Every structure is written in C-alpha cells, then in structure tokens.
Amino acid sequence: MKIYVANVPQASTVDEPTNRGSGYCGVTACLLEGLKQLGFAVTAAHDGLHVYQTGQLHEQYDLYVVQRSMQHDQSTVFRELEKWGILGRTAFIDGFDYVFGPDYFWLKSPVAYFQKENLGRHPVHTLPFGIEDRFIRDGRRIPAHGRANARVMFAHRYQTHADRPVILRMLQEAGMDVVWRRIEDPPETRGPVYWQTGGRHNASYYGALDTCRVGVAAEGEAVDTLRYWEFAASGAVLVSPRVEQIITGFPDPPTPGVHYVPYDGPEEVVDAVRTAIDRYDEVIEAQREFFLSHHRSVHRAKRLLSIMAERANAIVEPATACG
Fold it and tell me: Minimal CA–CA distance to 23: which of 199, 153, 234?
C-alpha cells in the first residue's frame, strides 16, 4: 500500500522546535511515524495542496491523509479531492470547512477526527494524539522529596475552561510547587483549532516536565486538553478528569485509579494530586506500561487503517445520513 500524508509539520525535535502547520499536526506527525514503522511506503509533504492539482496522483496512492491547511482555503482542497474521485480513500484530520460547511464535508468522506462535539452529528472517528518516539524517556523516575515538595505540572491555555484558573489557584493555595506553563494565543485563531505545534515542543517545557512527579490535565478546548501522550512518556503521574469527560470514543481508554488518578471536579484535584504523589511508584509503572503498549504512533496508524478499511465502501450520501 502506498500512502500520501499531506501537511505534516516540518522536521522538529524537542530541542529545536518548529511552529509550522495547525494545532493538529501532532496527529499527522505521529501517523507518519507509525505508518513507516508498519513498513508502508509513505510520501509526506509539508504543504500538500499541489498533490491534488497535478491531476495524476489520484492513481498513484492507495490512501491519502489530509491535515487542515493554514495556507489554503479548505474548499480548494476539497474540490480537487472530489474532482479526482479520491474522497473515498482520504482521511481528514481536523478538516473543518468554511465554504461548504461541515455537514457537506463530513457526509462526503470517511474521516478520522479528534473533536468530540462532531461525533454525534457526523460519521467521524476519534483519533487523538499518539506518543511519538522522541517524547519517550526510558525508565525515568522523578526522585521523591516528600509530598510537600513534589513538583506538579499544569500547562494549559488558561482561558478555555472555567475550571482551569480555579484548579491553578487551589493547587497554589494548597502550598504545592506548581510549574505553570501558560500557552498563549497564536496569531491564527479561526475555526475549531487555535494552537500551534511549536508551543508544546519547546525544550524549556520538557525540561520542566522532567522535574515533575505529577501532571494535571483539565477540561477545555484546543489540543492541550489531553496531554496523555506527554505525561505518559515522561515520569509524571497523570491526574485528570475521567477520560469520557474529555474525549468521546477515546480508543483503548485507560482505567481510572490504575493508569491515572481521576478527579470529578476542581474541589477534588488537590486530594487527587496527593494520592498521585503517595502512589507514585505504583501508578507510574502501570501508566507507562499501558500507554506505551496502546497509545504510541504505531497504534494510531493501525487505528487509522482500520477506520478506512471499514468505511472504504460505505460513503454516506447526504440524503440518507441525516435520518
């Protein structure tokens, strides 16, 4: 099988980040890695619009993976895909369209998608971030310095959910050593995705995370909602709202109390963090084993291929999909 992946972020490392592509380019980056690990012939482009305008590549690839382009109107990409009859073998990652509208867009193509609010209305599938190899710290354990001195990572776009400032305040008032990384608004703010890749790839962020025994996730919008791939690959125990509160249809979900420490509201977060500190050795081992055996790049690639295989011959027409 020959696969084309469009709008992959340019080469980036933890120490030398790039800030290209949209907020969901982390998905295409992990898919590219996973598909290669599975042995497929993969062609990747940083900006893939030209591939549809050649009029020839529709015969050369068995599967297309298209990431939302910040440089081009999505309707242009959509017209080219439809023109060459390759929608049936195209997976869209965050393909929100401003001209046709999402109903037309989703009903014409099998898709893999992250935003939970679309799952009830459109034939889409959840495909969250996977753990890329470069994020994995082998066997890392953060030294214990007592409950009061344990560092806690809390990094979010502060304004996207009312719980976030409350959680931060409660952690600070409890006397915890909170490492807070505020992710600022980028220049590109249209549509459902607001955050760019570079913000989560910087060396200072990972340097700080490497000193924390606990990482707190919180509800909210944008791609920083679910930081599982980062915490699980580091040495921080994940403290989070229950998975189903954040992502509908999360594949192979972790078990609360086993693979992460759950909380059901801001009032519970301090106790949850203390539980994570007290159970650090137990939870970090189970968390790491689970996420690295279920949620790496290769697992996301397998899920994508399974989704496309199931839907390849079942394109839903608008007249029948809304009933």
Answer: 199
pLDDT of residue 259: 94
The pLDDT confidence band at residue 58, using thresholds 50, 70 and 90, is low
Phi-psi region of 146 (alpha: psi -120 to 50; beta: other; left: phi over 0): left
Reduced 3-state DSSP string for 29-65 = HHHHHHHHHCCCEEEEECCCHHHHHCCCHHHCCCEEE
**Which residues in 169-256 belong to E strands, given as ranges?**
177-182, 214-216, 237-241
Q: Are 304 and 65 in contact (CB under 8 A)?
A: yes
d(Cα 197, Cα 96) in Å, to the nearest integer?
Answer: 18
Q: Which two tokens stand for residue 219?
A: 């509800």
In whole angstroms, give the CA distance from residue 82 to residue 64.
Answer: 13
Instruction: Give the number of residues written for the chain.
Output: 323
List the domains of the chain with CATH numbers.
Answer: 2-130+299-321 (3.40.50.2300), 135-295 (3.40.50)
**Which tens digits make up the pLDDT trace of 269-312?**
999 999 999 999 999 999 999 999 999 999 999 998 988 887 66
* Cα gap 97→122, rounded to integer Å: 14
Gap between the Cα atoms of 15 and 204, Å rounded: 9
- Distance between CA 294 and CA 289 in Å, rounded? 9
**Residue 133 structure tokens:** 């190899």
Question: Please, what is the angle between helix 280-294 and helix 269-278, to 10°?
Answer: 90
Assessment of whether the complete model's pTM goes beyond 0.70: yes
Structure tokens at 45: 């482009």
Rounded Cα distance between 200 and 202, Å, is 6
Query: Which comes out higher in pLDDT, residue 153 or 10?
Result: 153
